[in-house]
Amino acid sequence: MANKSLLLTFVILFGVLLSGCAKKSEQTAAKGNGMKYAQLLGITPEEGYTRVDVRTEANGEPVATYLLVPKDKEVPSNLPKGEVIRVPVSSLVVNSSIYAHPLKELGSIGVIKGVIDAPYFSMPEIKAGLQNGSITDIGNMQQPSVEKIVTLHPDGIMINLFEGMTTSEMPTAGVPYLKFADNLEYTPLGRAEWIKFLGLLTGKEKEAQKIFNQVEAEYNALLQQSKEATNKPKVLVENMYEGVWYVPGGNSVSAQMLNDAGATYPWAQDKRNGSLPLTYEEVLAKAGDADIWLLKVFGQQLTKASLAEMDKRYTQFQPYKTGKIWYSDTSTSGLFDYSAFHPETVLSDYLIIIHPELAKGKTPRYFKQIAP
Questions:
Q1: Domain boundary among 173, 203, 233
Q2: How far apart, in Å, are the Cα atoms of 127 and each of 76, 137, 145?
Q3: Is residue 25 part of a domain?
Q4: Is residue 62 reached through a cis peptide bond, with omega within 30 degrees of 0 on the bond before it?
Q5: pTM of the shown model
Q6: Tell me, what's the pLDDT at 168?
Q7: What is the CATH number of the domain that holds 328?
Q8: Which residue in 112, 297, 366, 372 has a CA-CA distance of 20 to 30 Å to 65?
């Protein structure tokens, strides 16, 4: 039951993290914020500092403004309103392994001195740091340890925002929250572009740009490849949890990525961007004849027999009968940790599974086919 609860948390979180408020073309560049795809992040170089604006809605007011001032320079006088952050930072508390991976890519994993919700971190470097004491377990997001934050006194506490979330009552011990809204972005590349903010914080701007350029090139190359497909197989996703079947809304980034992979998504016409809570009957009626089934488990090696043991009604779905079921064991696959800033890896998996004729013998990174 613990594993199931943890997986549900991950599934809903992953759905939100890959959600956007509206489906937009990846080729539509953000305007007026210095970004190419990101709609919720603004980066503006100024004299003596860089201004970073974070929003939760594309046309909304900033929920946070950061004024990044190099440590080797004096803080300019008459700065506009905003949180002054001296960069590059040397210590951070991080609330999600989603940010640990890009920090590692940037060569800045060492700035992580504390983590929130430590059990959710699977990266070996973080686990080792927690064990040897170089990284501090700050507690959970609802009740982080003020005493430990005071002792560490990091340069910032990184958190990812959700719609309706407030940090006004969360303890800071005088340490600023570095708010990230990448999970609310409109497109996969829009979210991936937030690595530029991490690059600014760590003094690795060039490295961040290089990583993003590679992600962009690979994603768009896969997108072009998917256009060679001559059919669009119907794809069912996820499975039941305590009587509810959660699927991504039609305006979610998850749905967009399935479309980019040349799939037909049964809920593509839905205008919501979060997870849709459905009954078994609703899913069967709309996707019982699906060609492919993609789902996630936690700590399980899935077989057709074990899937039927979860709910014998699953045998009614066409993919169960044909064996075209692919699953990701998120306890080991790295899907939740790595894919947020590397959407090209998920798109690649989808393309391999949905259109193997275009994959040229490649195997998926996160998913594997269910055993007979």
A1: 203
A2: 40, 10, 19
A3: no
A4: no
A5: 0.87
A6: 54
A7: 3.40.50.1980
A8: 112
Phi then psi dihedrals of residue 178, to 5 deg? -100, 100
In a domain, 226, yes or no: yes
* Helix (H), strand (E), coil (C) string for 174-186: CCCEEEECHHHCC
Contact criterion met (CB below 8 Å) for 207 and 199 = yes
pLDDT at 296 (0 to 100)? 94
3-state SS assignment for residue 300: coil
Handedness of CA 341, 159, 331, 15 (dihedral sign): negative
Residues 6 or more apart from 353 whose CB is under 8 A from it? 292, 294, 326, 364, 367
Q: How many beta carbons lie within 10 A of that of residue 18, not counting itself?
A: 23
- Name the nearest CA neighbour of 95 among 192, 17, 11: 17
Distance in angstroms (rounded) separating the CA atoms of residues 116 and 94: 6
Q: Which domain holds residue 199?
A: 41-203
In angstroms, the CA 343 to CA 346 distance is 5
In degrees and rounded to multiples of 5, residue 148 shows phi and psi of -70, -35
Note the residue count of the chain. Answer: 372
